[in-house]
Amino acid sequence: MRPPDIHHHPADELLLSLAAGALPTGIRLVTEIHLELCAACRERVAMLRAVGGALIEEETAAPMRDDALAQAFARIDAIEAAAGAVGTAVPRKVPAPPPLPTGAVWPRALADCSATRWRWIGPGMRWSKVSVPGAPQANVFLLRIGPGKYLPPHTHRGTELTQVIYGRFHDGRALFGPGDFDLADGEVHHQPVVQEGSECICVAAVDGRLHFDGFIARWFGSLVGM
């Protein structure tokens, strides 16, 4: 399959936080999905990790405590004991993801996650809630919107990350297609409109809430955690 032509990428600050392991779970997952599709950003993150490793090696060694070695062995024993307990546990069965149209691929970053069936939220509009193991607070979901349909106008009380995996939408600022990434915050007021010819499927993570202009839209948004 030919790689998508990607025009919108995460900012360097976000990629640096990803490389440092400092992103909240939902934001990390959506950013990792972008990396699956974008060779340029994968190379960027690899470079940032290499630079970080070099900086760590240049740091002056800190003096060790007298009991540092004993503590290290104790932690190793605890990890081995936990690994043995996990080995006897019944493997977690992940439900099949909701069906996608031909040409759309379920992201590898969500392989251990479960997602609900597609649920109706309006004419030509469906959504699926993604559950992340060990991170119930992560607000991650999929949106599947038909051609010519649109979300209500909204801004954000927090941060919204969106990764397109199929189709295209225009939100008044730019056109976003397969592989494109968008980060919107309280300074962005937009209305994503799916382009004619194909439905659009996106993975989104919201840290905070979307603030829709109308009362009914806000009510629907509260039902799906947007």
Describe this structure in words.
Pfam families: Cupin_7 (PF12973). This is Transcriptional regulator. Residues 108-203 form the ChrR-like cupin domain. The protein is 31% helix and 24% strand. It is an alpha+beta fold and 226 residues long. It has a single domain (1-226), classed as Sandwich (Jelly Rolls). The strands form two sheets. Strands 1, 2, 3, 4, 5, 8 and 10 form a seven-stranded antiparallel β-sheet that branches. A three-stranded antiparallel β-sheet has the order 7-6-9, with no helix packed on it. The mean pLDDT is 85.
Question: What labels would you give this structure?
Answer:
single chain, 226 residues, alpha+beta, Jelly Rolls, 7-stranded antiparallel beta sheet, 3-stranded antiparallel beta sheet, 31% helix, 24% strand
CATH homologous superfamily designation: Jelly Rolls
- What is the string of SSEs from the N terminus onward? HHHHEEEEEEEEEEH
Number of domains: 1
- Molecular shape: globular
Structural class: alpha+beta
Please give the count of helices: 5
Protein name: Transcriptional regulator
List the helices and strands and how they pair.
Elements: H1 12-19, H2 25-37, H3 39-58, H4 68-87, E1 114-115, E2 119-122, E3 125-131, E4 140-145, E5 154-166, E6 169-170, E7 175-176, E8 181-184, E9 193-194, E10 200-212, H5 215-224
Antiparallel strand pairs: 1-3, 2-3, 3-4, 4-10, 5-8, 5-10, 6-7, 6-9
Helix pairs in contact: 1-3, 2-3
